[in-house]
Amino acid sequence: MTDHCTHTFRKIIASYNWINKSNIRTYRLRCKCCGYRWNVYYDRKLKKEVLVSRTSDDRPLNTKRLTPAEVRTILIDPRPGAELAKELGMSHQSISQVRLGQAYSRLWPELPRKVSKRPKQGPAIKEDPNLLSCRTCTHWWQRRCGLDVPEAGGAFAEDCSFYQKDK
Prior knowledge:
This protein is an alpha+beta fold. It has three domains: 41 residues, no CATH class; 51 residues; 40 residues, no CATH class. It is built from three helices and six strands. It has a four-stranded antiparallel β-sheet, with no helix packed on it. A two-stranded antiparallel ribbon has the order 5-6. β1 and β2 form a beta hairpin.
């Protein structure tokens, strides 16, 4: 047995067409043995895998590096992201990432970033260990009663004859 994985058991987990209508398609692969992930670029015209450099004309539009002046323009310009993206030759997702502070956040820190509309995940609710609850029972498993008691959940533990304190 070898010391390292050869990534021969690979699985396609995603595929992408490029914005500029290129013949190249990106495949995101994952090794079934070790979970390692990587990209493969496949030219549909040549019908083979190819190497793509950062300076290639066939590269995706969203790999463009922005100058500080372009970042400032994105943050100040009130136009929609799609309109601004066409002007700058990039994707609207890249414009959104700059405006939300997910990209280029160190440039122009004094300019305000927009707040994401997605709710953030809060900390898990900790229950009082002295409180009788189904969630503190030994039989509570995968958010339901492991003994299939239909009434289980919440404060039912006070009336449950199977309740055992989780250690």
